[in-house]
Amino acid sequence: MDTAAAELLTVSDLVRLSRPLCGTTFLASSTSSRPSAQSEPQGVSPFGNPSTTTNILIPMERPVFLVGIVSLPVFDVDEHPSTPHKCPSSNSSCLRFSDGTSTVCCDVLNFGVRMLLEKVLVLAFNFTPFKQGGGFLEIVKWSFRVFLSGQLHPCSTTVPFPLRLHNVSAYEDSGAKARYNIIGAIESVGPVFTAPCSMKNESNRKNLRGFLVEFIICNCQLCKSKIPVDKLVKTADSHSYSKSVFVYFCGSCSPWHPAITKLIGSSVVLSGLKKKLMFIGRGESQLIFVITEVSLLHVLRMPWKQSVHAKTRIRGRGECGHYNGVVRAVYLQGTVVELDKEVWLLLTDQQSVLPHSIRVGAIIAVKNAHFVRANFSGNQVLIVGCCFRSSILVESFSPLETGCHIVSQMPSLLRNLIAPLAFSARLWMLLAFSSFCRKFDGILQEEEILGSKKTEGLLQMYATSCLPSWAFRSRHGVFSEMCKHASASCGYSSEPHDVELKLMVPLSIFMLYCENMLSRAVFRQGKTYPESCIHHGGNCSQTVRRIIPSQEIGINLSGTLKISPASGRLQFFDATGSVDVLIPDLPSTWKPNSIYEVSEYNLIIEGIPQKAQAHSKEHIDESFSCKMIFDWSSLRREINVGIVIYFHFRNATCRELSFNSSDVPKEDHEDLNGEFLMLQVLHKFPVSQKFPGDLAISERSSAIVEAIVLPWGLFLARNDSGQHFSEVVGNLSDNCSQISIKRQKTDRSSQSPGSLDDLNSMASDRSNISISTRDNINSDLIDMNSHKIPCLACARNSNKMVLVGSGILYSIKRTVKTDISCKPSILKTFMEFKSFDLFQYQGLQIGGFYIVKHERNGSSCTFPDSDSANGLKILITSKTKLWRLYMFPRETLFYNGVTCNAAFSNLLFCTYEVFVGEVIRNLVKAPASYSLVTTDIYLQVCRDLWGPLELDLKKIRCHFTNVASTIEEDNLFCNETGVSLSSSFNECGFSSPFPVGNLTCIRREIIGVHNLKSLGSLDDDKWPRNCNGDVTSVSIYIVMGHHTVEVFGSLRKYAWPIGFGEGVYATFYRILKHSMQNRFMLTPISFIEIDSVRMVNDASLSLHANVCSASDIFVASDATSLVLISQLVLSSCSSFIHLRCRVVDVCMLILERSDTSKPILKSMGPPQFDIPIAAFVLEDGSSSCVCWTNGDLASTLLRLSDEFPSTAVGSTCESSGCYYLDRILRRHDRITMKNYGSLSDSCEDSFSVSSGNILSNSDENLLKSIIFNACFGLEWAIVGTVMDLDAVRELQGHYLQADMELDSFQHLWARELHEQHTERWCQQSGGDRDGRLGRGRIDGDALGMEDVLGVG
Amino acid sequence: MEEEKPLTAVHVKLLAFDLLSLTRTPPTFSRSGLSISRAETLGTVTSLDHKPGCFLKFTVDDGTGCVPCILWLNLLTAPQLASRRAANPDGVMMAAEAAASQAALVRIGAVARVWGRITSYRGTVQITVARLAIERDPNAEILHWLDCLRLARSVYDRRSDSHRR
């Protein structure tokens, strides 16, 4: 080795250069030759992380070397003021390298203890500067200076090294009685920690720094005897190392920590030790050895003693072992290190310090770590968790120019939160912390996320609510966890494995994840869609819509709910993005900008697969990973699919952070006191978008709601005024009974109660009624001659009913000029919501009743109460509260908290929508039931006095039916008769170009949406965007009766409802029925509301079939050949065939009860019974065959998820076939049904149904009905394999014990099932280019079918 | 080669012009020598003749012709079905209810898919309806054409040819 040609470099030179570099003495003359590790081309990351720098360290152009001394760290700089260098990392125990000019932190490969005593030549090194000054030297190759000159044999390992480097303090042990020697292998090294220490008769306490080392020693008699060290060394090879002992390096020995750590696995002899009894915890003691003043270290030249953990197989159940891996990334100030692929090294303990040399690209060895497999939202990771026994060593330094991590102190609150957690929960917590920091960056302070000593932060609230009890465990001190590690004091060994914890991710990541889910699903099905079907910025018939429940996603969502100022839509928002939300039970009193957490939701994802694929091919395999959360910046890209989150407000948790809000949150119903006006919303006009730069309009956006002020007022008196509630109810009930007697008398004379004709008699009756209110003060506010109805008001508070107080509904007499004499006085008003108050607008429902406070003495919001106010526009601000009201008449008014809440819960249970795999039923428009779920105030009204109000409401409805351009209330729930038009629209005489027709309202299912062109995409010069916004011309196809009807027109981007598209049931308000054509036209005032959403273009109709096809065997139907049944004879048994056919008969069916403990579900849940075997006759026009299948596929072919016609089963309400079969199978364990005839010949008695018990006629008929329903229904695409007759006979023999005459059929075993989609078949037909069209009268040219069929 | 199953038990998909040109060969019908007895057709309902409790006659226009269809609604009263009613009253009742509910679906302008036996009345081929369904898929009609063409080309024509040979 020749260093003559090399140049001596000083440390100060390196520090002065202050750039990452590497140097070596062995540089060849050509500077172009670089180490192989550095030949990685720049810019291509071997770690798959674009954010990670891939620049290799710049080599110095000339051969260089360093000469200096490697020394142990100095912990307490204050005690050693002469120390020229201090490691910038807190709590660090770095080795130091000094050459007299400067001192830097260093790490050494092939460390030898002797190098601590002599000068060394550094022959190859990496240098990385610190930002704070100084730097870090990685000594790759080194040698003794004297060795180079040939004077000394290299490092004689048996030379003893004194362990006391400095003067011994009074607190440490002297050499007296230090007569113990141990020989053994270093198994583990604990962290440096401080222990309080005091001398006898001294009040001063001092923190004594030190660390524990676990040795594995021999337990033989020789070792136990006090033999001299040299004899012990000579016999080193003959010992069996099995006993664990601990040696405490404390005081002036504590700097030995990095050196001893590097000796893990080495055999050493320690001499001059003392034995001490150490008390750890209550009543527990441990005998340990303590280093004394005279202690010596001998490193033996023995083969490496294999650790007990060296060959531990990684199972991920908390076991302890060693792990070697490449550092891919370091996150969160060095607390999390990504190793290899989805292996996460956790260094969260305060004492655990990340060495500087753990840079990206380095190969490290983690000694004595715990392995835990965890599942985060479906993503399996291996956690390498460090406890107090764990150490990290660098096997190979990184050749990359990645900086050193200076570990500053991690926020103590976070550390405190993490410290008592199990490893999987720790990583979860770090992920949550990272997510929260990103999600609420700029929204919340770090203190609000982490909390303070006094208040809980958002993170802690979330963790407490999410983490299971096993995640929290008690921690012990370093002594205890080191010494009692084997007895599970460490606690990690008991960590449950393969547990799944739901993550909370930033919305941007969530949306990427959703997009990938859709793309993956499309790829998996092998679907491709022609580019031609992709329309600009909107839906087309090829759009794929999926509804995925949160259980399948495994991600929790958190964010603020707010109305997007740009679109006026309700959105879930965080600092990384926003996503549209559908909340059917959004109360009108919801708090905008509050933080909500949602764990139960449904994701509606919609997109054009081609478009999604194009952007996702590179990401298609990129499943969700923890890396995304820690390093999300690299994932920023455009989202190309529509994403809507659908959840119930009752399932959302609102987090109230009390950091910056001094005011105590007020209950929503506290203001429910005083006089209120009653409103009914007639129409919501779409949010009008106004654009910045438009000088004429200064506001950004606003919305108008048309409402009527009912001629009824409500007076509410809160129940907290001291009067006992029973008294109030008693008074009201008494009044009710008195009034009811009077009413009965009157009713006798009236024609028919509740009819419109007796309004006059009712009006005259009003004067006869008088009610004494307990609040006489307010009696002057109410016209005593008007009609009054006592009532009780309950408010919804979360999912409970809370009594607000008693009240009176009173009629308001107005004199409105009208041509109808008995018309109630009605004021129509327009409520305007500015952009900041759009949240109120969102909560309003067309047709809903609302109450608003009526301040007579002037207020911020005054509603018209004079005749002249008709048609006024009133600005609604956030100060104006609108409560949704639901009135229901009762015989007697009562409130019993428990009963009411129970009734309320039942109500919710009954009326909540059911998620049934492919359909989300939104109760927004389901009459009565919806009202109850979304209502803020429930008003119990005395039934006997309800008549006048009811009649008024009917009158109003009747009145508005006769008013031009106003919807008819009944039309909201259009029936089969189709469109019911209002009276004549003011046909203004314009012949053209203005469309002429009636405004109406329809509620129908959408079967197709086509964006003809997006006008907003035109050049700004050509299209006045400022006036119209992003206007899209759309054609929406709906089913009305037996016809497909088009709803066409221009729709502004922001008027497009959230989640709108094919498969949606929607209500169109105020659309124009074209007088000339059977078409409807969208007008600028048209409003569309989504009612329910159905999955479109999914692989199968039902959830069960979906699950089945995605399970064990998946055969892409596109990959198999589509054949006719007549061609089955030519198919082999081994290959999959694909049929397009219908069920025409069910030959055989066996039903078995599986579990009776579960309740019978009326909804379409998974069946509680099993179908062991079923045989269906299939037909496709070419022939027929028998298809055998079982389980879910059989259930799907039987269409058991369909709502079964109630008439078929003599039931009063509709339920699924599953429900009825469940019910039958409660009485019969097993039912076998055979069909010897054909359903085509409908009334033949061909069925034979048998069971252990006697089947009743009704049950038998029900079975027949179910089979009847299954036949001649949907067209299926069935993938399966042909069965030979032997297999069929075996099946028959096994299940039926008798042959049925099925030999004449071809047989098939179904493997996969899809509902057949016409578009898909079109494509398949298009691909069938092997033949000619055939003879027929259809002109291929005229129909354009040549293109489809490929006829030349 | 294995003998092919007769098509008499299968609902063949034929376009109206094809269906109406079938030759009556009792008890079945013949298409270029190929025996068939059941058919499926799909098209717009263009005429209705409803005699409640007796029958519903309607025509289905598939663009190539109009197929007369008859749905019997007298299963509970027809004298010729008395024995069947006595043997299986529930079955006949169910069939009668199904027929009535299906009859309610048929309206002029609706796109109906009809399965049934091929019969003839006064020399004209018609379908005696066993089941019918109203199609809502706007592509259903054209796909029915494609099905008919494909089957005619690859099954019916081929089998007629082989039958003739």
In short:
Chain A is α+β, with helices and mostly antiparallel strands. Chain A is 19% helix and 32% strand. The chains are: A alpha+beta (1352), B alpha+beta (165).
Radius of gyration of chain A: 40 Å
Oligomer: heterodimer
- CATH T-level topology of chain B: OB fold (Dihydrolipoamide Acetyltransferase, E2P)
The helix count of chain B comes to 4
The number of distinct helices of chain A, counting runs of at least 4 residues, comes to 30
Strand content of chain B: 35-45%
Shape of chain A: globular
Characterize the biggest β-sheet of chain B. 5 strands, mixed, barrel
Question: What's the average pLDDT of chain A?
Answer: 68
Backbone structural class of chain A: alpha+beta
Give the CATH level 1 class of chain B.
Mainly Beta
Mean pLDDT, all residues of chain B: 88
Question: Please, how many domains of chain B?
Answer: 1
Biggest protein-protein interface?
A: A-B, 57 and 59 residues
Structural class of chain B: alpha+beta
**Contiguous runs where pLDDT drops below 50 for at least 5 residues of chain A:** 29-51, 150-157, 527-541, 611-617, 659-665, 692-698, 721-726, 736-784, 815-822, 898-931, 962-992, 1014-1029, ...
Give a description of the structure:
The complex is a heterodimer of chains A (about 1350) and B (about 160). With about 1350 residues, chain A is an alpha+beta fold. Chain A contains 30 helices and 58 strands. In chain A, strands 23, 24, 25, 26, 27, 28, 29, 30 and 31 form a 9-stranded mixed β-sheet that branches. In chain A, strands 32-34-36-35-42-40-38 form a 7-stranded mixed barrel. In chain A, a hairpin with a 4-residue loop joins strand 5 (about 95-100) and strand 6 (about 105-110). The longest helix of chain A is centred in the middle third of the chain and has 25 residues, at about 725-750. Chain B is an alpha+beta fold and about 160 residues long. In chain B, about 30% of the residues lie in helices and about 40% in strands. Chain B has helices at about 15-20, 80-85, 90-105, 140-165, and strands at about 10-15, 25, 30, 35, 40-50, 55-60, 65-70, 110-120, 125-135. In chain B, the strands form 2 sheets. A 5-stranded mixed barrel of chain B has the order 5-6-7-9-8. In chain B, strands 2-3-4 form a 3-stranded antiparallel β-sheet. In chain B, strand 5 and strand 6 (about 55-60) form a beta hairpin. The model of chain B has no long low-confidence stretch (mean pLDDT about 90). At the A-B interface, helix 26, helix 28 and helix 30 of A face strand 1, helix 3, strand 9 and helix 4 of B. Chain A: One of its GO terms (biological process) is telomere maintenance via telomere lengthening. Chain A: It is found in: Chromosome, Telomere; Nucleus. Chain A: InterPro entries: CTC1-like (IPR042617), CTC1_plant (IPR028262). Chain A: It holds the Pfam family CTC1_2.
